[in-house]
Design brief:
87 residues; Arc Repressor Mutant, subunit A; 2 strands; 9% strand
Length: 87
Amino acid sequence: MKNRSRLEIIAMILETVGDNGAIQAKIMYKVYLSFLQMKEYLSQLMKNDLIVYDDGAQIYKMTDKGRRFLILYKQMTESITMTKPIL
């Protein structure tokens, strides 16, 4: 597997959480993170209001801000891959 950027990992987490939410195990296995890496990313995403933790359902849910981030990330990566190579 190629090295991924932080933004790519964040986008993968947000896609995994989606509109229905996800438990820690699902996030960890779908995004290929260790438990410690996953906890760090989830903490940062919650601090930045991209996801929230639902205590009752015990799942992580994406916020509106998280949805906007994911849309902008996808638009950015599409526009970069559509451009012609520089060299």
